[in-house]
Amino acid sequence: MYEQRTPISVSEAVRRVMELTRTGDKELVDIKGAGGRYLAEAIIADHNIPPFNRTPLDGFAIRSEDTIAASPDKPVRLEVIETVGAGGVVHQPVYSGQAVRVMTGTMMPEDCDAIAMFELTKEIKADGKEWIELKRPFQPGEFVSFEGEETKAGDALIAAGTRIHAGVIAVLATFGYQNVPVVKQPVIGICATGTELLELNEPLVPGKIRNSNAYMVQAQIRQAGGKPVYYGQLADDFEQCYKAVAGALNEVDALITTGGVSVGDFDYLPEIYEKLGANVLFNKIAMRPGSVTTVAEKDGKLLFGLSGNPSACYVGFELFTRPWLKAFLHSNKPYMEWTKGILTADFPKPNPFTRFIRSKVSFVAGRITATPVGMDKSQVVTSLAKSDALVALPGGSRGYKAGDEVDILFLHREGTGDPFHDPTKLRKNK
Amino acid sequence: MYEQRTPISVSEAVRRVMELTRTGDKELVDIKGAGGRYLAEAIIADHNIPPFNRTPLDGFAIRSEDTIAASPDKPVRLEVIETVGAGGVVHQPVYSGQAVRVMTGTMMPEDCDAIAMFELTKEIKADGKEWIELKRPFQPGEFVSFEGEETKAGDALIAAGTRIHAGVIAVLATFGYQNVPVVKQPVIGICATGTELLELNEPLVPGKIRNSNAYMVQAQIRQAGGKPVYYGQLADDFEQCYKAVAGALNEVDALITTGGVSVGDFDYLPEIYEKLGANVLFNKIAMRPGSVTTVAEKDGKLLFGLSGNPSACYVGFELFTRPWLKAFLHSNKPYMEWTKGILTADFPKPNPFTRFIRSKVSFVAGRITATPVGMDKSQVVTSLAKSDALVALPGGSRGYKAGDEVDILFLHREGTGDPFHDPTKLRKNK
C-alpha cells in the first residue's frame, strides 16, 4: 500500500540532524600530513612575532642620534664595524659613529635603533676601514621591525575546528608544531542498495546501471574531512540487509545508505530502521531532489538514508551529512556558505517543494550569478561534474526567471555558522 | 655594491613564466584515489544516459492508449501482471488492459509507454488477480525517462585538465572508470636558504626563527596538485649551495628556493643561476610583497626563487608557481580567478608597486567584499592563516579607501584561463 509521509522543511530537517552532533577526539599528526585536516585546539602564540627587533631589509643598523645633522650637502659618515647575516648576532658594542652591516631578518644590535637600507647609503673605503655616508637624518625606530609588532605571546591565532591549508601550516610551523593536534576523522560507512547496480568493471546489461553513488559519496566524505569505508552493495534480501546495516553501524561513527528509502516494494530501509529500534528523525523533506532523504538515530549514531538517485544523493549529503561531519571536526562553520545572487535561467514551473538547482557560479563585475548546469532531475548525474553551487528556489505557487535574485549555496567553500533558512511555507496537517 | 634591478610588471612576469609551460604525462589511478587529481583526457560518454527508457518513480508501467477514456467517474481498470524491480526486466508481453508494477529505475517494458505513479492509482484485488484503477488519461511518454535524454553516447562530458571532485567521480563511475586517466603530479623540489632558520623541533634562540616557508610551500604545492620534495636547508656556503641546487634540479620537474634572491651579502641565488648557466626571466617585479621574486630557466626546467619573507613567499608561489603547475596538470584555468569587489579598509599611502593584500572575502547581499587581515608587511606570517583572497592595489600616486572597487584574486577557487592584468604603469628606462 502506498505510504503517505509528512514532509518537513529543509531547515527543520537540518536542525534535527544538528541536535545530534558529536565531536571527535584529538590525535597528533606530522605537519606534512596535516593539510586538509581540522585543528582540534586553538593555536595560541607562545612567543612574540617577530621574536626580537630585527631589520626587514638589507642595510645598516645605525644609532639614529648620529644622523641628526645629516643632509645632502653634509652627509654623515659612519664606520662599518661588522657584518651580521640573518641568524647571527653582533659580537661587540656599537658606539656612536659606528654602524653594522645587516641582512634581512637580522636581529637588531642592541645599541642601534634604525636601519639605513642599501639604497639610502653610499659605501666608502678609506683608512683601511669601511664607511657609509648618509645624506638624511633617520628617526628612532625607522625601518625596524619590532618584537611582537605582528603577534604577541598569548594571542589566539587560529580557532579550533579550522581546516588546515597552506596559510595555517605557515603559522603552525612558525610556532614549532612538528606534530599538529587535529580531530580524528569520523569513519563513515557506506552501503549501497539497488539490484540494478553494476560494479565499475562490469559490462552494461539491459536494465542495469553502474553504481556511481557509492564512489561519489566516498569522495564527498573525503572532501568534507571524513574517512569513508565502503561496505559494498546490500543483498536483495531483507534479513541480509538488516544484518549488514546493523553490523556496519557497530564499526562506524555514522552510516550512509544509498537508495532503499522510498516507498517501493524493495525499499527495505524503513523496515530496517524499525527492526533496529532506530529513531527516525524524518523521512520526507519538502525539497527536490531528495525528498525521500531519511535520517535515523540509533544509540547516538546517525543513519543517513540518502536517495538512490545521483543528484538527490549528492544534495542530501551536502545538506545533511556534511554539516554533521563538520561539527564532528569541531568546525563552527558546518553549513554551506550561502548568499544572494542572480539566477541566469528561467524556471517557469512552480513547485510546492524547495528546489536545489545544480549550478555554476560566476563573478561578474562584483556580482554573483548562478547558471544552472544540465538537466534538473533527481536521477541526473552528469551535471554534478560541473556544479559548484546549489541555487535554492523556495517552493510556492510561482516560478522563477532569469534575473531573479535567489539564494546560492556554495558547494566548495569552507562554510558558515549560519544555516540556510528555507522560507518555504508548508501546509499544516497535510 | 648595491645592485640596481629593473622591475617588470606582474602581468609580464606571469607571461614569461607561462611561455615555458610543460604538460605532464598520463597515468592510471584507482578511482578511490583519484580525488584532487587532474584528468589527463576528456571524458566522452560511451553510452546513453539513461542507457534505456526507465521509470523515474515507483508506480505502474502502462499502455497510455488504454487510459484515453479514464475519468474520475469512469476509472479504467488494468490487470497487474508482474512486479519488476530496478535491475530486472519484464518476462512477458504486456497486452492491452495490462500493467506492470515497476520500481524507480526499472527499465520500461517494451509494450508500455507511460508511468502511473503510486499516488495516482488505486490498487484492487479481485478475481484472484491484482488490478489498478486510473482516473485520468495518460499521455504517451508521461513520466518516462527516455534513453539518452540526459546524455548521448559521444557527448563530451568533462574536459581534460579538470580537477577531480565528487561530482566528477560520479560521472567517472557512471562510465565505468575503475582506473582513471590522470596527469602525473609534477615533482617540485624545495630548498630553503637562511642561516636564521631553525627546524620545527628546535628551541628558539636569539636571532633565529623557525622555518615556516618550507612547510607552507609544501602545502601550497599539494593544494595546487603537485608533489613536493623537501631538500632541507642549504648550507651557508656558496659551493655547497650550488651543488645542492644543481643536484636537486636534476631530480625534479621544477625547483623552488626560499630566500637568497635579494641583494644581501649571503643571497647566493643570483650567482647560482649564473654558474648553472640558467636564463633569468626576471629578478624584480613591481609588486609588494615579493618584489625580489626571481624565476630562471635551465634546460627547460624552472627555478622559482621565492622570497624568504613568508607573505612574499606565499604570494610569489600563488602568482607564478601555481599557474605553471596547473598548466603542467593540463588545466586550461591555471590562473587565480579574479573579479571586482569592494575593499573594506583604507590604504591611504600610495605605493609605486602593485600591492597584493592578504584578505578575507565575504558575500554580502550578492556583492563581493574583501577585508584585509592582519598586518600588511612582507615578513608577516599570521595573516596567511586567515586569507582566502588577495586584493590587488595597482601601483601609482594615490592610496585606496574603504568602499573603493578593487580587483580580488581568489586563493582557493579552481581558477580561470584569463590572467589578472595589472594596470600599473611602469616608468621606462628607470
Automatic annotation (TrEMBL), chains A, B:
Family annotation (SMART domains): MoCF_biosynth (SM00852)
Cofactor or coenzyme needed: Mg(2+)
Domain MoaB/Mog stretches: 189-327
Enzyme class: transferase
GO biological process terms held by the UniProt record: Mo-molybdopterin cofactor biosynthetic process
GO molecular-function terms, A-Z: metal ion binding; molybdopterin molybdotransferase activity
Catalysed reaction equations from the record: adenylyl-molybdopterin + molybdate = Mo-molybdopterin + AMP + H(+)
GO cellular component, as recorded: cytosol
Catalytic activity, EC: 2.10.1.1
Keywords: Magnesium, Metal-binding, Molybdenum, Molybdenum cofactor biosynthesis, Transferase
Record family assignment: Belongs to the MoeA family.
NCBIfam families associated with the record: Glp_gephyrin (NF045515), molyb_syn (TIGR00177)
Function: Catalyzes the insertion of molybdate into adenylated molybdopterin with the concomitant release of AMP.
Name assigned to this protein: Molybdopterin molybdenumtransferase
Provenance organism: Evansella caseinilytica
